[in-house]
## 1
Amino acid sequence: MTRIAILDDHQQLALDMADWASLPGAEVVSFAQALTGQALVDALADFDVVVAMRERTAFSATLIGQLPRLRLIASTGLRNAAIDLAACQRAGITVTGARGAKNGLAVTAETAWALLLALHKRVLASHLATTQGCWQPLLALPLEGRVLGLVGLGNVGRHMARVGQAFGMHVIAWSPHLTDERAAQAGVRRVDKHELFATADAVSLHLVLSPETARVVAAAELAAMQSHAFLVNTARAGLVDETALVDALACGRIGGAGLDVFWQEPLPATHALCALPNVVLTPHLGYVTQENLSAFYRNVVHNIRLWMDGGAPQLLG
């Protein structure tokens, strides 16, 4: 019997989203709670296949060495920096990747806009005040005429630009390799990094995390931002220096932040961010939709079936 573990199935919906029964002789077990450390090793010790939800669980060389039965890691998404591919290759473990829904990138941009709108329109503070009998505690802020700074102008960044332009915002962009031509194709103006952080009323991050982009937003960038400006991150937490951001928010150096990604996930309730009044926090919802998860799991099952049959599944890039 092939034993399959599904990790990070927080909503306990994975088993209903794909035809796991189509995998002959397979036993499928879903884990709702995030597992770490020895608990993770103990939970996975008797499984041949692990279904990894994007980069929620890290598969280091050390962890892989503690799972001698493991033969396949079936990841959702086509890229997963949390899996040590070299260690998997040495251990003879196949690693596959699965596409999500066609609108998977658009929904990440939608989450970024939800955060931006919540910050500008003071949604959370106003909701709480209204339920407590306090009327109009804060002034809302307009979007039209303001400057949106995009750090990254790939698929998600271009979607952000189109929506920002529809709101009447002036859109500028920077990334390490952005050219004037690519910026012009998106109808935005390319600026240097310092100008973006110094002039944008709202900065939204849309870069792939890599050694080149790690902590691309650090103390210097936050210090350059205007005191009313907002920072939004729906990409990867590692793009931002955690300590520098918490300090900037705690002392009111920037207007606030909308975050969908965190340095530790799930985010502990004791984290300093949870006590700050100028943040809007969502639990990494940028990809969590019925359509996207269904597509992920259907394609994961397809990859596992191909692997079981000796075929050629979609390998992780």
## 2
Amino acid sequence: MSNTFKIDLNWKRSTDFTYDNFNRNHSLMFSGQQFLNNSAAVEYLGNADMANPEELLVSSLASCHMLTFLAVASKSGYIVDTYNDQPIALLEKNEEGRLAVTTIDLKPVIEFSGAKIPDEDQLKALHDKAHRNCFIANSIKSKVNIHALGRIS
């Protein structure tokens, strides 16, 4: 099985092209004509009002994990009512001394309903299976920690 995914990225110089002055703002166009203004992180002279690559990385992982978790939970007979997460990515020097997103902490809070509610061990097993099958998790080097909380609604 093979799938291809494509975006359009566009940047144009609007200032002097020196490190301290060049504009980091650029646009991303996704499928369905979804448009996102993007920049560097503020710490790297970017625009605080725009998403940055580090946020996009953590959002990709969190979204993939959630979608995989929902698939695993539904196939296991659980009913998920809500899934909320506030993931955090840590940018620091890696073992080679280069800046990298070394750790991503997912903190999903999930509400279940119905006759079948997972206990703590079952919830962990669902997340473990979701993590093993998440396409993005399988594509990155970052350590991923899952601090999950399940609730009955």
